């Protein structure tokens, strides 16, 4: 067993004044007074911020989510965090662990624990394109630690988004961006018919090679880890963000989709492909193994080619 201190950046929002509480039910899909709240959403919610420490005895293979559930059950029921599946499938539990955006449920204590010393620096580093994510590369050698070394894990809400409470970030700006980019298949509608004109198959057939072009991208769970890592995204006003661009890329690579021109158009604005600075921090911790930076680069090239083709046609 390991004795670990979880150092959690906590936040309690200030109660909203009645005069500002005018958006209808927070559970309503659309407010009767306007949009879902995106335009009226304050950039930074005011409230009380502090750091709170909790000590837990856990196994090295426990997840950080296990630690939080133990704290909530046994020490402090007021601690707020979000999760659902517990298995890296739903994407609802992205936070910053030791400053790095990742999922609580897939983060093992052994990979994230660090000595409680200001001199300790994790070996983060950037990986070259094409190499898989190696979270073990930054893991501490627990057997080599001096007895009595204090171990900590720092936790904070996902960066780049407004914090709602404790470890819960408001990811609605990202979901709004994805929604705007039509995250669904727009097929031509031409189905295979029999000789007498009847519909023969309600399927849009694809070869295994065509499927392979977008299959990995379709695994994106909109967790926001890539957005939280992106130094340009930060709130999404200047850049649609990597998750939204991955959505576009997924359908651009799908042979059944028939609106590639519209999809490329949607990334031609100043907050689209040209806003990406190719930092590639978005690639580092995608839980689905998508090389987000490389995919964005491929999409940027498609957008540039489409823009040039249009300029030539107009000249
Ligand atoms: S691309 Fe990866 S990191 Fe980004 S939202 Fe999708 S699953 Fe999460
Ligand atoms: S709880 Fe669903 S991805 Fe972590």
UniProtKB/TrEMBL annotation:
GO terms for molecular function: 2 iron, 2 sulfur cluster binding; 3 iron, 4 sulfur cluster binding; 4 iron, 4 sulfur cluster binding; electron transfer activity; metal ion binding; succinate dehydrogenase (quinone) activity. Gene3D superfamilies: 3.10.20.30, Alpha-helical ferredoxin. Residues 12-46 are annotated as: Disordered. Its cofactor is [4Fe-4S] cluster; [2Fe-2S] cluster; [3Fe-4S] cluster. Belongs to the succinate dehydrogenase/fumarate reductase iron-sulfur protein family. Keywords: 2Fe-2S, 3Fe-4S, 4Fe-4S, Iron, Iron-sulfur, Metal-binding, Oxidoreductase, Tricarboxylic acid cycle. It comes from Bifidobacterium simiarum. Its EC number is 1.3.5.1. GO terms for biological process: respiratory electron transport chain; tricarboxylic acid cycle. It comes from the Bacteria. This is succinate dehydrogenase. Residues 210-234 form the 4Fe-4S ferredoxin-type domain. InterPro entries: 2Fe-2S_ferredoxin-like_sf, 4Fe4S_Fe-S-bd, 4Fe4S_Fe_S_CS, Beta-grasp_dom_sf, Helical_ferredxn, SDH/FRD_Iron-Sulfur, Succ_DH/fum_Rdtase_Fe-S, Succ_DH/fum_Rdtase_N. It holds the Pfam family Fer4_8.
């Amino acid at each position: 067993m390991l004795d670990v201190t979880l150092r959690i950046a906590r936040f309690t929002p200030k109660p909203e004044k009645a005069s500002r509480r005018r958006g209808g039910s927070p559970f309503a899909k659309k407010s009767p007074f306007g949009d879902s709240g995106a335009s009226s959403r304050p950039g930074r919610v005011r409230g009380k911020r502090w750091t709170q420490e909790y000590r837990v005895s856990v196994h090295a293979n426990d997840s950080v989510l296990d630690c939080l559930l133990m704290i909530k059950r046994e020490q402090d029921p007021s601690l707020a965090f979000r999760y659902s599946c517990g298995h890296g499938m739903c994407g609802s539990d992205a936070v910053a662990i030791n400053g790095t955006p990742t999922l609580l449920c897939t983060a093992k204590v052994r990979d994230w624990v660090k000595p409680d010393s200001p001199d300790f620096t994790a070996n983060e580093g950037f990986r070259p394109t094409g190499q898989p994510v190696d979270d073990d590369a930054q893991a501490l050698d627990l057997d080599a630690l001096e007895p009595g070394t204090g171990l900590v894990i720092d936790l904070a809400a996902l960066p780049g988004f407004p914090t709602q409470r404790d470890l819960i970030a408001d990811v609605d700006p990202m979901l709004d961006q994805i929604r705007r980019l039509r995250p669904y298949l727009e097929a031509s509608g031409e189905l295979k018919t029999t000789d007498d004109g009847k519909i023969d198959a309600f399927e849009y057939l694809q070869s295994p090679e065509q499927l392979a072009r977008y299959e990995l991208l379709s695994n994106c769970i909109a967790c926001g880890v890539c957005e939280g890592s992106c130094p340009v995204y930060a709130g999404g006003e200047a850049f649609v963000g990597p998750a939204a661009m991955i959505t576009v890329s997924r359908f651009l690579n799908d042979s059944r989709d028939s609106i590639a021109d519209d999809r490329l158009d949607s990334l031609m604005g100043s907050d689209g492909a040209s806003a990406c600075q190719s930092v590639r921090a978005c690639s580092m911790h995608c839980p689905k193994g998508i090389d987000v930076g490389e995919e964005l680069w491929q999409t940027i090239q498609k957008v540039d080619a489409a823009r040039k083709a249009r300029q030539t046609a107009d000249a």
